[in-house]
Each structure stands twice: as structure tokens, then as C-alpha cells.
Write the C-alpha cells for this entry.
Amino acid sequence: MAISLKVNGATRSVEAEPDTPLLYVLRNDFELNGAKFGCGLSQCGACTVLVNGVATRSCSMPISQVGSAEVTTLEGLGTLAKPHPLQKAFIDEQAAQCGYCANGMIMTAAELLKRTPRPSDQDVRAALAGNLCRCGTHNRIVRAVLRAAQANGRT
Amino acid sequence: MNALTRRNFAAGLGGIVLSFSLAPRLAPAQERPRLPGSLDTNRMLDAWIRVGADGKVTVFTGKVELGQGIVTALAQIAAEELDVPLAQVIMVPADTGRTPNEGQTAGSQSVENSGTALRLAGAEVRAILLELAAKRFGVAVEALKVADGVITAPDGRKVNYGELAGEANLKREATAQVKAKPPVQHTIVGKPVDRLDIPAKMTGGAAFVQDLRLPGMLHGRVARPPRYGSKLESVDEAKIKAIPGVVAVVRDGSFLGVVAEREEQAIKAVTALSASAKWTAGPELPDPARLYQQLMTLKTQDKVISEKDASLPAGAKVVEATYHRPYQAHAAIAPSCAVAQVQDGKLTAWTHSQGVYPLRATLARALRMQPASIRCIHMEGAGCYGHNGADDVALDAALLARASNGRPVRVQWMRAEEFMWEPFGPAMTMQAKAALGNGRIVDWSYDVWSQSHNMRPGDPDGINLLSSWYLAEPHPPGPARQAPQPNGAGDRNAIPLYDLPRHKITHHLITEMPVRTSALRTLGAYANVFAIESFMDELAAAAGIDPIEFRLAHIKDARERAVIEAVAKAASWKPGEKGDGVRGRGIGYAKYKTTATYNAVIVEVEIDRASGKVRVPRAWTSVDAGLIINPDGLTNQIEGGIVQSTSWTLHEQVQFDRNGILSRDWKSYPILSIAEAPKVETVLINQPNQRSLGAGEASQGPTVAAIANAIANATGKRLRELPFTPERVKAALG
């Protein structure tokens, strides 16, 4: 059946079963690469998107539950030409080894910075504790989020 | 990077193979001079570097990005020697249709092998272009200046590389006679250049094989047996074929898979397939409660890897200890993934394998095809820490693509599948015994038991691809093999660099495979450095000497001493410093695989005595990797290794029982969270006149030892079995 979704400001329609996880529709139908499959179990955070501004694990959210909520993916946050302060900070800090977890880190941090524009190191670590990084880039990721928060403060 | 654009994805579709010169096999090897690095086996200049009419330089490497930043480092090297800006370089990583064969990207050898080839090929191509310019201007080569790909004559006339490209004949063997630049002239190498791949990864660009979408692409999944060696007895294929979206059910012996139009349909179908399939039980796994004793009863190949005799002074004090390391998983954040397409009898596989050529050769044997009919194209996966499921899933995709009428098939393993079927880092036992006289080690004996750390594709006597073992005509895996010292495998770093006048070191390679194992980052070095460096602290304590002073008393080499002294200084180590029951510090040191990067680590631990929980709030490290190519990349690798090793050391152990693997998700295989990561202070020791040394695996060994030693320093209790879980720490504290 056809289901309509609001993604990155546009309304788009997809032919899929209502229990289809949002992640597969974002990736396979809307061709958005940002959200990643990591576990399909809401444990690693690689698939995180914002649903009405709330960081949400898209691997475990059926499209039927999205309703009229606004879905924002990494692509909706900013682009290569006009990156979001978090995206710019992750590039400037070179906060990646493989970079597969970066989407989840950035999307979760985006929600944090909305709620807490000037977080402490501890705030950032606590907010990202449920997002897994396997390469050991933990500290650079924290520094990138703190850097983005500072950039926010200046604008 | 442009290798990741859709245009290039599409370029592979029609089986287009761009031609390049292959090294001629006419001259017998002994008549040809040995060339440095990978030039020796890939001798043509245009196999490495080509210059376009637009002045862009295309650089081919057989090495691949694993999250370690190697493609950027290699681009720096090529740009440096060619005198072109980094932005003018197009990198083409491993592709059996386009690039040199450099085997596996493993063992921290990429800068040494591919980097050396590109450095010399770059210098030679630059010299060829300069000669052409000299002829054109009628001046001597020495009179020319070159910057940013533009050559300038003394009278101001200019010509750029693009204009000379048509005349430059690069279809010739490298001579390696043109000298590379001395490091003092470097303007790109040695600089903290931004990684080429990071911007796309931060903004949703297509960066991974997982992001590859081909027209008409289908989705496949494999139904795995309950445990190793189970055989398929029955399955209701018709029932699964009736599930919406299912295109094919593939059964070949005990290999069972499904292909569907949509990914979620494939997942539903494989769930139903698994529920319908009946399997034989398969052989039992070892009893986890007696794992290390059981492993030592298995068949071994024993080899004394180093032995030295000297007289043993009377009255020496003997110290003994035994250490254990469990099976540990690669556990990449993304499960393994591949896309395969079979058209007109030709297979194209997009893969995050560490070695596209060995994979191609092995796929050819598993599928009974000619290697020439297979093209393997590398695309990145999530961080790769050794031999994971990348190669296996490429075979899965190929087996399913054969049943899909020419349409490409994407297979991504599920999370539980990755945990249950990847080859783990082997469980290991290390027994150390030494004698002390006058504060010095006068005798040393060391035995290490381990399964194989190298069961990768490419073995001549077997097929090391998971699904090939389950086909109707199965191909058994290759045998376990010793790897020669000085680098070794299970015995990697088993020979300490310390001055040991009398010693015997024995490697016991367990040749049976009760649990699937292969290469995990550092191979045996993590466990051997854990054991040796823990033991050095135990000996220092028995001798009543500060552990750093004790180490230095057994080291003559200036570079080794400098690394240890640098970390002691950075951490403000106080000789004889003692922990207070809760906090403590410890050191670990190694020269990775005996021939690569020197690295020392000091950590501070904090122990919650009530729960037994260990935290590592801080670490200090010093690194000598020879000539540094990219200081930021090097720091990232060393710090990443410290954080990853902290995770292995505090948390990681594959859970299993006699019926199978029980670690199936991030709850049953927890890893270090961001909240737990140590803060790291890094000191880089650049050695501009020394060759660059592999650094991707240098810090894991020193870190585990530093943590073990810090816990002993804090509490007086020595932990000898990994990981240091709260239960074990509590039990030790009593």
C-alpha cells in the first residue's frame, strides 16, 4: 500500500507494507545514504534520524507509525556545500576512522544541541553513550560536538 | 573521492575492463633487479600512475581504505613526488579490473609497500615529464622548475603536465633509479592533511558498499545453520517462494538463501526460511568453563621460534605466570555486505574485502569459474579490524546472483549472523617463566598456544569462504599454517626485544578449529604483549625495581629507550609510584610485530572496589613510526587503538556454549561506550631519516598491558585472564 512520509521538508510516497522499518524506505526508496543499518535492534544508533526533532532509531520504527511527523535525515541537516555546524565540526575535527557511525553521532548530537546549546564534555559523553563507535574515535567525536556547540554560540 | 561516484559504479556494469600494462612475465625473476616495495611485483609505471590531458593524475593502488586513512596517505605520497596539488590527484583503490595486485591490505604494510612503490613511481614519472619539457624548451633538465604540476623554464616559458601527457610514455618498467625527495623538501607528506573520504561520510554521500544501488538490484539473505558443521535435512521451499516479493530460493547442499525485490521482504523471507529449515546438530563446541585446558589438549604444531643459551647463575629467583585471552570478535559496526551481478557468464562483485585479488582467485575456485571471468571491485565497508565476513558475503552474493537472471543482488548480513559466523580472534594461553639474578633476567622461557590467525581467502589448499563449506560439493577450508618470524602470527611479538641472554620461546599452533578463527587486528601481538609486559612488571616487582627502570635495564637500542622515556616524561611518571587501592598507573611497551612502530602507553585506572568495575580515565602514549606521512592520521590510529584495546580488555569475550555462539548482539557482546573512553595524550617522535613504519596496530598490545599493570599497581592484585570484567576484578580483590 502507498504510505506518505514527510522527509527533509518534502512529502514523498512509498509502496511498502506498513510494518516496513523506516530505515529501509529512507535508504532504498528515497535513496538517502545518511541513516545506516548497524544492528536492526535499536542498540547501536547508526540508523538515527530526527522524528519531529527527536533522535529516533529508524531501524525499529515502522513507517505506519511515522504518520505526519517530520523526518529529518543527515542529508536534511546540511549539505557538502552548506554543512550544518555539526557536519562542519566533524570534518574539521576529522572525527572519523571508518565514519559508519558518524550519522548516528551527528543526529543524536543535533538533538542534544537543540536541548542543551552549550553542553559540557560530560553532557556530550552521556548523550552519545548509546551510540556505538568501533574504531575508537570516541574522543574526536566528543571534541567535534563541543566544537559545533561553540560555533553555534558565535552565530 | 571520485571512485565512489555513481558514474564509476556504473562503469563496472558492462564488465568494462580498462586496459593497463601488466608486468611482463617473460624474463625469469632472477634476471630482473629487485625493485622496492610493491614495484617489484607490479613493475609498469602506468600500472601506478597516469597523467590526463587535463593535468589530473590518476593514482592506482592495490591497497584499500579500511577506516585507517590509507588512501589519503598514499595520495599525499604521490602528490609529493609528482609536485602536484593533492586536489589534482584521483585515487583508484583496489579493483581487479584496474589496479595492481598488492594482495591483502593488512599487517600495517600499506605505507611500506604501496607507499614505497608510489614514491618511486611518482619520482620517475616526474622525471619523464621534466625530460620532455627540457626537450621542448631546449634547456637542461636541471634548469627547470616545477610546482603544482606546471614546469617553468629559466626564461619564463611554462608547460603543464596535461600538455605533456600525450608524449609521456609510461608504458615501461619502473627503474626505481630516480631518487625520491629528501624529507626536508616535503610540503604535503608529513602534514596533517584532511582525509579525502570524510566530507561525503558526514553529509550522506555514497561512501560505502552498503550505499551502492544498481538499477534492478535485488536483496538477498542467507539462512544459516544453528552451529558450525550442521547439515540441512529439509526445508519447505515452495512455502517460501509464495512470500510476497520473493524472486528465488537458492539451495545448494546446505547453503540456503533467498532473493527478494525489497530488503524487508528478503528479511521476512529468510526468517520464514530459517523457521522451516531442519538441520543436523553438528559437532559440539568446547566447554567454555574449561576452554583453555581443552584447547591445550588439541593437536598442535610446535616450533621453537627463538632460543639462546648462556650459563645460569646459581641462586636465581624463579617467577612463573600463565595468562589467557578469550575469543574476541571484530564486531564491525556494519554487518558485512556485498553486491554481485552475473551476466553473460561473468561475475562482478563489489566488496569491502581486504584483498580483491585473493578474493577473486578464491571465488573462482569456489564457483568453478575462471579468474578472468570475475572482477572484484573494492568499496568501503565499516571499519575493518582484520578478517571479518567481507569475503564470505561476497560469495553469498555471487551464489544468489547466479539465480537472479542477470540482476544485481545486494546481501547484507544481519547483526546476529555477523557475530555468529565471522572468524574470531583466537583464544590463547601464554605461559611465562623467568629467573632473576641481581635485578636482571637471567633466564626466560615462554610458550604460547593459539589457533590460526590467518584463515583468509588465498590459501592454495583450501577455500576459506564460509558458504563454500556448505555447498553440495563442499570445498574444505585450508589448513592452519605457521607464519614465519620476525612478524609471526599467533607468535607475533612473542619474542621480546629485551636483552635476554638465555631464553627459549615456543609457539604451539593449534591446528584444529573448534571455533572459527582468523586475523583480528594485531594477530597474536595483543595477547603476547599483554603476557610479556604483565610479566615484566611481575618480575620488576619481584626484583623490587621500578617497572620502567627495569625495562630500560634490559634495552640497549636508542629508539626503543627514547619511546619509553618519552611516555614516562609525558605522564610525569615517578619511579616507584604506587597506587592507593583505587587509582593506579601502569606501562606497556612494544615494537609492533618486532619490525614496525615503536609504541609505549601509560594508563591510569580507577577501580570501583564495590562493583569491581574498572575505568580508564586517562592514557599517555609515545610513538615512533619513522618518517611520519600524516601526523593527524597517525595520532588517530594510535589513539583509536588505545580506545579499542581498552574495549577488548575491559569488556570483550565471545560467549558460547556447547551448542553454539551466544554472542549475537551488542548486549551479549558489549563494547566500550563513548562515556567510558580514556582521554589520550599523544607524543609523536618524527624520524625524518628513517623509513615509515606501519602504525595501524601498534597501540593495542601496549594498552592491554598498561591496564593490567595499572590494576596491579592500584590494588596489588594481578589479573591474568582477559577481559577484566567486574566479576573477575571483584573476585581478585576478595
The CA atoms of residues 21 and 87 of chain A lie 26 Å apart.
